[in-house]
Design a protein that fits this description.
There is one protein chain. The chain has eleven helices and no strands. It is mostly helical. The protein is globular, with a radius of gyration of 18 Å. The termini are far apart.
């Protein structure tokens, strides 16, 4: 058998390897998401999801600011800065974080409680902060590669919006308004990140680091859903201090 482990992948082969990771490791396969999209969760369980996912949304601009500090040309920084604006907005009351807070309010949560992050699960906190620290501490190539879970997000967004609107009477299109801009923002982000890793992963060792970074990010997303499932679905082990439904 030929050992190809030291042979440089072509850009097309590298992209194929990245997409293969998503096919088996992206969190659309997690049982919690299947329940969420299929209308199998209670309103309180949906609240737990919205509350915990807020921490991930709120920390994305901080993660992106760490990446921004490692980009050494104005052109690259302008491109990456757009991600921060997408989440923070360019004026008060705009941006993805604000839209997520409106989603949380739409499912019946108190805005101030959500923003405090007091009720999030320890697993959520640890996973999200591990991601922020990864981008802060690793080379920019790995940080950018870790963002490539966005390659797989448009499909899960479409499934989520369709399923939640069909299956939950307390969900409206306005509640899910966060997701509409992401259908165009995410592909734009992917185009840049994918081009960057193809151009800068110039050794097989670098390519392996790119693949490992994407696997790590998939693990971050999966771990957050593990925590939700364990606490709020089965067996219902809610840690002290975390949100208690009802």
């Amino acid at each position: 058998m030929n050992d190809r482990s030291n042979i440089l992948l072509t850009p097309a082969e590298l992209e194929a390897e990245l997409r293969a990771i998503g096919a088996v490791r992206y969190h659309h396969l997690h049982p919690f998401h299947r329940l969420l999209h299929g209308g199998k969760l209670s309103r309180q369980q949906v609240q737990a999801w919205a509350l915990n996912r807020y921490y991930y949304q709120a920390m994305i601009p901080i993660k992106d600011a760490h990446a921004l500090s490692k980009l050494h040309t104005s052109e690259l920084r302008r491109e990456w800065r757009r991600r921060i604006i997408d989440h923070d907005g360019d004026t008060a009351g705009t941006g993805g974080i604000e839209r997520w807070l409106k989603l949380a309010e739409g499912v019946g949560l108190d805005r101030a409680y959500v923003e405090s992050t007091e009720g999030i699960l320890p697993g959520t906190r640890f996973a999200v902060e591990a991601y922020v620290n990864f981008v802060r501490d690793r080379p920019i190539l790995e940080g950018i590669a870790s963002s490539l879970t966005e390659m797989f997000s448009p499909d899960i967004i479409a499934d989520r919006v369709r399923g939640m609107l069909q299956n939950y009477s307390f969900i409206t299109e306005d509640t899910l308004a966060y997701f509409t801009p992401r259908l165009t923002q995410a592909p734009q982000d992917v185009d840049f990140a994918l081009a960057y890793v193809k151009a800068h992963a110039l050794t097989r060792a670098d390519q392996e680091k790119v693949l490992a970074a994407l696997r790590f990010k998939c693990d971050v997303l999966w771990t957050q859903l593990d925590a939700l499932y364990l606490a709020y679905v089965d067996p219902g082990m809610i840690p002290p201090g975390a949100f208690v439904p009802g």
